[in-house]
Design brief:
With 272 residues, this protein is an all-alpha fold. The protein is built from 7 helices and no strands.
């Protein structure tokens, strides 16, 4: 199980590096930076947990679990920004700080592995469900082909985490968190594959949005000559209408001026 953690962490970090490269070329894509941050934080979190026993408990438990929650919150904020809604970083920081305080208490004050495992797993499952809800609520209207599979993958991870919590309830973990059942190992494997597929789905969402923006811009460029011709025609029609409306009073002014110049009714200024 420790090997599975390490492999999961290395894959997540490698994907984060690839996402950084993709983000550098498409910095204007909303949510992409947050998804990159989420991928990196999840990788670091899993790496810290995988090195439990080789790193101080504060790093492998408190910081690692706080990073996992903050990584999910970063993914959630990225989805909100992708949909044009504001990010809520205050909530993200509060959730991560709460998990850090809870983990620290159940590590140094009350050494309770069971409480830590159950609570963090439930919070992570709720975070995945929230990400799935945000994807269905917003981006599915724009990039339906990729947003719905991403939401399904988040739902799958949430289910896997819920099953993990149930397994913890049936068989509370001991001091060695890596000496677990085969069912729990399979659950972690599902989470690993799901996390990788989620990153791929998010990148596909960003790529599909870029394609949609390019197609929209091309359509605007193609319709630009037609709009210019319509504007020119409207300008000509306006001038013709104004000229028609001004012609009668103009002719009247010219006629009265001619009458005064010829002094038909006498010199100018003569009283009637």
């Amino acid at each position: 199980l420790r090997t599975l953690f390490i492999v999961h962490a290395l894959i997540s970090i490698a994907l984060a590096v690839l996402m950084i490269i993709f983000w550098r070329g498409h910095r204007n894509t909303p949510g992409l930076a947050e998804w990159t941050l989420a991928c990196a934080l999840v990788g670091l979190s899993v790496l810290g947990i995988g090195l439990h026993g080789r790193l101080p408990d504060f790093v492998s438990i408190v910081i690692a679990q706080a990073l996992s929650v903050f990584g999910l919150a970063a993914a959630w904020n990225g989805i909100r920004l992708f949909d044009g809604r504001p990010a809520r970083w205050v909530d993200a920081v509060a959730a991560a700080a709460g998990i850090a305080a809870f983990s620290a208490y159940h590590t140094y004050v009350v050494d309770d592995v069971f409480a830590r495992a159950i609570t963090v797993t439930i919070v992570q499952s709720a975070g995945c469900l929230l990400c799935a809800y945000e994807l269905i609520r917003g981006p599915a209207r724009i990039v339906r082909r990729t947003a719905l599979p991403a939401a399904g993958l988040f739902g799958l991870i949430a289910l896997a985490l819920a099953i993990r919590a149930a397994l913890f309830l049936l068989s509370p973990p001991g001091a060695n968190i890596f000496a677990l059942s085969a069912a729990l190992g399979a659950d972690f494997l599902i989470s690993l594959v799901g996390n990788v597929l989620i990153i791929v789905a998010l990148l596909m969402m960003a790529a599909q949005r870029l394609q949609w923006q390019v197609e929209t811009r091309n359509a605007d460029l193609e319709s630009a000559p037609t709009r210019a011709e319509q504007a020119n025609r409207a300008h000509s029609d306006f001038l013709a209408a104004v000229s028609t409306d001004l012609r009668p009073p103009r002719n009247a002014l010219i006629g009265f001026s001619d009458v005064q110049c010829r002094r038909v009714v006498g010199p100018v200024g003569t009283p009637p």
